[in-house]
């Protein structure tokens, strides 16, 4: 079965019409190769930044954690701007090329901060009470590297998944299955790159040399650039159709202008219905949700229609198709909001610091210590093992039971991941209690006798949650957004991560300040042995539990794109011919 599906996907390179040559999996080595090395570069640097900022730039832990939360949040929110410029002006190919080059420059700048002594503060030996911080020029140079990484990630992240999916024919069964498998294998290769980064690269950075350890990711990014441009001749490149947000603004403006009009009794028959003949968007049936927007498509005596059937002034009369596309966006927002707290529960900011204050020796007699940031590999290892098992075994089995193409619905997949964050947070709290109990007294951030391997269960649950919820979100946004907004759809996943980063940073700051002078002591001090990080995890578990209940309500209410109702089914994708550029 797997061989037959692969053959069908490879057959997508057949000329299906006069313009489009779908190469299917033949384009994947270049696209996934580019993405793999890009992540090897970016994650190889970002995964160990907490340690780098606290040991090389002499920042306090709370300052470094807050800075990285803001940096990660800004990086992910930048994807909205990248998606806008991609869908409106440049297309995915040019945007990806520009972003890859900007990321390379950013990694190079951060490498220079480690390589030259005048670009970072003097080394602060362990046990020193007062350390010299970075000067304003040193900080500015570091932030310049961060800025270039933000620009690069803002261009790459919203486009890479959509660009890969563009290589498959969406009008064939094999093409649709190819897109579904692409999402799974994309995360598989992404996680493999993360594993290499948090093991080999982090080891070089922490135990051998920061300049060499940071130069390796920059080299990976350079390889990523070569791989991306090497596949130029076989890529399918979808032309940008102009700003899709203009249509959204038109619907909202016209609906407000016509808000006093009476809603028609049979809107699916009486509303103005027109779809551009060469639009890449699939035709959408009428839905009952958000009926107030229907008034944007009510035809009045003052509204003029052109000879081709289109509205003479789209700022005074919108089509039913435009209205339904805006409804798609509004329906997605409550699901997106649930994803924000999922990321707060799944991405635990203090795991690295927990590992630093735990026994990281492989055996009692061993002198080698596992680098703190490397423990994240257990989360990635779980995802890497589960994705191929899910794609090749679980999905075909569930498909036979349920009759659904993906085995279970996308929302069910997301819901499982959200539920796992509750369990993950509870286990994290229990492990932290044990770590504190076995920690010696005294100051100096003493190392607990508990093995850091006890962090593995919570990290494995985080990887399993990501395999369900993160991949499910990407697939959900890709399928539920209008086709001309798929770069925006890609940015939505990262905007959820951005909101989670800001929320997490805000939550940490509030808890830190609120408990700083309390009788029970600060929950999140510099020395975790004197804090109550377990209480913080219990707080996160409670928030995740409330989030799960909220998600169940939203999932019950949600209507999939093209279903025209509330049935829990995903409509088939019947798309119009796509106007593409073939180089």
Strand percentage, roughly? Answer: under 5%
User: Quick one: how many beta strands?
Assistant: 2
Instruction: Give the low-pLDDT segments.
Output: 1-18, 565-583
Structural class: mainly alpha
Element order: H for helix, E for strand: HHHHHHHEHHHHHHHHHE
* Total helical elements: 16
Radius of gyration: 25 Å
What does this molecule look like?
This protein has about 575 residues and is an all-alpha fold. It is built from 16 helices and two strands. A two-stranded antiparallel sheet has the order 1-2. α6 packs antiparallel against α7. The longest helix is centred in the N-terminal third of the chain and has 55 residues, at about 60-115. The two termini are about 35 Å apart. Residues about 1-20 and about 565-583 have low confidence and may be disordered.
Supply database-style keywords.
single chain, 583 residues, mainly alpha, two-stranded antiparallel sheet, 62% helix, 1% strand, globular, disordered C terminus
List the helices and strands and how they pair.
Elements: H1 2-10, H2 28-46, H3 49-55, H4 61-115, H5 136-165, H6 173-208, H7 210-230, E1 236-238, H8 244-257, H9 267-270, H10 320-346, H11 351-356, H12 377-402, H13 410-437, H14 456-480, H15 486-515, H16 533-557, E2 580-582
Antiparallel strand pairs: 1-2
Helix pairs in contact: 1-6, 2-4, 2-5, 2-6, 2-7, 3-4, 4-5, 4-7, 4-15, 5-15, 6-7, 6-12, 6-14, 10-13, 10-14, 10-15, 10-16, 12-14, 13-14, 13-16, 14-15
């Amino acid at each position: 079965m797997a061989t037959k599906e692969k053959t069908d996907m490879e057959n997508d390179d057949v000329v299906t019409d006069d313009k489009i040559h779908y190469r299917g999996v033949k384009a994947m080595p270049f696209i996934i190769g580019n993405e793999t090395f890009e992540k090897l570069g970016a994650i190889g640097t970002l995964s160990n930044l907490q340690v780098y900022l606290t040991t090389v730039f002499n920042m306090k832990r709370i300052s470094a954690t807050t800075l990285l939360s803001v940096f990660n949040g800004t990086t992910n929110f930048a994807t909205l701007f990248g998606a806008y410029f991609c869908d409106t002006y440049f297309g995915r190919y040019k945007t990806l090329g520009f972003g890859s080059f900007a990321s390379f420059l950013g990694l190079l700048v951060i490498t220079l901060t480690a390589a030259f002594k005048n670009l970072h503060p003097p080394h602060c030996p362990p046990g020193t009470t007062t350390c010299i911080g970075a000067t304003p020029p040193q900080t500015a140079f570091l932030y310049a590297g961060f800025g270039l990484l933000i620009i690069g990630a803002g261009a790459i992240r919203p486009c890479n998944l959509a660009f890969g999916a563009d290589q498959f024919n969406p009008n064939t069964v094999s093409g649709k299955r190819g897109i579904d498998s692409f999402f799974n294998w994309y995360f598989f290769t992404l996680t493999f790159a993360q594993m290499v980064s948090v093991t080999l690269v982090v080891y070089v950075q922490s135990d051998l040399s920061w300049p060499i350890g940071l130069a390796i990711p920059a080299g990976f990014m350079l390889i990523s650039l070569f791989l991306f441009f090497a596949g130029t001749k076989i890529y399918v490149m979808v032309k940008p159709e102009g700003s899709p947000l203009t249509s959204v603004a038109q619907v909202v403006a016209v609906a407000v202008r016509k808000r006093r009009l009476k809603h028609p009794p049979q809107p699916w028959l009486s509303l103005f219905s027109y779809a551009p003949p060469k639009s890449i968007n699939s035709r959408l049936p009428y839905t009952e949700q958000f009926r107030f927007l229907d008034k944007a498509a009510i035809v009045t005596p003052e509204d003029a229609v052109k000879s081709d059937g289109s509205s003479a002034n789209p700022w005074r009369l919108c089509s039913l198709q435009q209205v339904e596309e805006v409804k798609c966006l509004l329906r997605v927002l409550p699901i997106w909001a649930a994803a924000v707290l999922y990321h707060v529960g799944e991405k635990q900011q203090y795991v690295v610091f927990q590992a630093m204050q735990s026994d990281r020796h492989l055996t009692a007699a061993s002198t080698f210590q596992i680098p703190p940031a490397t423990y994240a590999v257990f989360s990635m290892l779980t995802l890497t093992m589960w994705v191929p098992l899910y794609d090749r075994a679980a999905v075909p089995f569930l498909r036979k039971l349920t009759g659904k193409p993906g085995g279970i619905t996308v929302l069910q997949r997301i819901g499982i991941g959200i539920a796992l964050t509750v369990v993950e947070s509870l286990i994290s709290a229990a492990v932290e209690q044990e770590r504190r109990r076995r920690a010696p007294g005294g100051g100096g951030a003493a190392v607990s006798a508990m093995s850091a391997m006890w962090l593995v269960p919570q990290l494995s649950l985080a990887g399993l949650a990501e395999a369900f919820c993160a991949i499910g979100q990407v697939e959900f946004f890709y399928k539920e957004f209008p086709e001309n907004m798929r770069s925006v759809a890609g940015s939505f996943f990262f905007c959820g991560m951005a909101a989670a980063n800001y929320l997490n940073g805000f939550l940490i700051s509030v808890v830190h300040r609120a408990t700083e002078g309390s009788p029970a002591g600060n929950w999140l001090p510099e020395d975790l042995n004197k804090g109550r990080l377990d209480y913080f995890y219990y707080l996160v578990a409670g928030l995740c539990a409330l989030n799960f209940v909220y998600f169940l309500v939203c999932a019950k209410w949600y209507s999939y794109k093209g279903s025209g109702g509330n049935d829990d089914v995903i409509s088939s994708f019947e798309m119009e011919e796509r106007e593409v550029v073939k180089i």
